[in-house]
Amino acid sequence: MTEEKRIASRRNVGIFAHVDAGKTTTTEHLLYVSGRIRALGSVDSGTAQTDSLDVERERGISVRSATTSLVWQNTWINLVDTPGHVDFLSEVERSLRVMDGAILIISAVEGVQSQTEMIWHALQSLRIPTLLYMNKLDRVGADPERVLQEIHKQLTGMAVPIYAPLGLEDTFRGAQNVLIDAPPAVGAPQGFDLAAAVEKLSELDEPMLTSYIEGAPISAHEVKATLQRYTRQAEAFPLLVGASSKAIGIEELLAAILDYLPEPRGDAQQPLSAVVFKVERDKTMGRMAYVRLYEGTIRNRDTVVNATQGVEEKVTQIRRIDGRKAEDLGVVTAGDIAAVCGLTQVRIGDLLGRPDSVPSAPRMAVPLLTVQVHAESDAQYPVLVAALQELTDEDPLLDLQWLQDERELHVKVMGAIQLEILTSLLSSRFGLAVRFDQPSVIYKETPSQTGEGFIAYTMPKPCWAILRFRIEPGAPGSGLVYESQVRGEQLLLQYQNEVARRVPEALQQGLLGWEVTDIKVTLLEGEHHVWHTHPLDFAVATPMGIMQGLAQTGTTLLEPMLQVRITVPEEFGGKVLSDLVQMRATFDAPSIAGGRFVLEGRLPVATSLEYPVKLSAMSGGRGVITSSFAGYQPSPPDVHAERKRRGVNPLDQSKYILAVRKALVN
């Protein structure tokens, strides 16, 4: 019997953090302390177990989420180490969906950063039980009291310290358990004691509040049991402390995973319900789909239904991927994670079997830049297209577009670091030397007012499709809302479904060439003809009706915004304020603490592309800017951005009809 079959329980845990908070180092020490690996790897030396790509080892950053596992006290723990850099937020987003518990690492020096907040809000929206781990208490500048205040202010007031740091910076030597019936540690920072834990939990638990008010004794055992209950409900959050690079706090973190994070639910005997959260290509096995099972079982040679794509495929092998090693399993059951081979058509986000047990996915990552890719020669374009398609399978947000007529390749990216990584991947993995143009900002459009679009597509025969749409501006961030008020006897359901399918496609290019968003489209009228209507007539008519409606409403240009936090030495504060005014920023009143000038605000992406480099140069490398996507907002009237339209504009109805009928002569 294998070790895995003897285990008493299981945990699926994601490790999340802002860049440089010590995520991969923490994972490495968890593996080492548990005995899963015999020698410690290092991020700096490129030997970390979960950094498997060449570029990860060279750059010392995580680019892809990596799965690994360990056994601690007879419990099998699947760990997913996620990237910390904002350019690879899509990997974080996909990992969040399949976790039953999380560890959110916060540096005791840098504190809560913008990406920390973004990940936290996603964890909260999915109600994922979370441990908070304050790392780097051995570093110069570590300030646990300040960081605890930041956590309470910016993340949650229900962070409950369960360990107190012993010493600080170069004297940091360990952590003392707060949840014991003993006096607080000598010199422990304020808020890191049993009394503070009781006070926090009394806000949630009425019996404890009653005891607290009446002055009745509350044992540490009672506090721990109460904290366990509320942690598993994602209402309270244990806070641990440590210094992962010195293995301080690691055993305590392993114990907390078992004590506070829940076991996965699911019944192996139920029909299959699973989601694909990652796709990789193996040299021998081809496409590997990383799958989290919520219900049911997958065995070798099983035929699996891909509910998203409506196809069936046969499983050829099931593997447990452990960093850079792989182990054949033969079977994977509810609650577990494995890599499944043989699903050649599978894509990230596909639902396998019944979709009803799979939780919804958070949406955090939004590519804000588009860039054209050039091959070394025309002869290399087919190879480059295939390589980029493979990378797009692994990261769908790249959204590869091959414009065959113009012979242009375009991808969407999050930032400059991602472009560097793409260049490296194309070189090391595919042997391709490529050149990227300067990235350009991805704008969007939204209707300027309410209006109607009408199309009567009745010529040249045989064809008949009549549609009337109402087009209205939607709430910011609402995307596309579509509904039909047409009865089935007026327009057959099959035709209405075709219209619904084509509306999002029609909105990919608005009057200015950008995707139209924050829009409500209502089908008011529809008509088909018993003899003349062809099934594809409504596919042709829908874009013409939508574009005709947009021409009536007009569109407003929307620009992407960043929420930023800038920290510089105090003497550079005036220059930063001047720069922000020039970049059309809006910001809160700055604060000054410990000789550092701190400012938070919103910046247009278009005006701030080069600012991180400028800030670093201006401050001699002592300035720090962190950012996260803050949505789209209307551009000022003097900002103009138009994108070249691909294909024939449906507003030119005669030419468009000829084009879709393949009758247009160039």
Automatic annotation (TrEMBL):
Keyword GTP-binding listed: yes
Gene3D superfamilies linked to this entry: 3.30.230.10, 3.30.70.240, Elongation Factor G (Translational Gtpase), domain 3, P-loop containing nucleotide triphosphate hydrolases, Translation factors
Listed Pfam families: EF-G_D2, EFG_C, EFG_III, EFG_IV, GTP_EFTU
Coiled coil: none
Keyword Phosphoprotein included in the entry's annotation: no
SUPFAM superfamilies in the cross-refs: EF-G C-terminal domain-like, P-loop containing nucleoside triphosphate hydrolases, Ribosomal protein S5 domain 2-like, Translation proteins
MF terms in GO: GTP binding; GTPase activity
GO BP annotations listed: response to antibiotic; ribosome disassembly; translation
Sequence ranges assigned to domain Tr-type G in this UniProt record: 8-265
Keywords: Antibiotic resistance, GTP-binding, Nucleotide-binding, Protein biosynthesis
NCBIfam families: small_GTP
Function (record text): Abolishes the inhibitory effect of tetracyclin on protein synthesis by a non-covalent modification of the ribosomes.
Entry protein name: GTP-binding protein
The species this protein was found in: Paenibacillus oryzisoli
Lineage, opening ranks: Bacteria, Bacillati, Bacillota, Bacilli, Bacillales
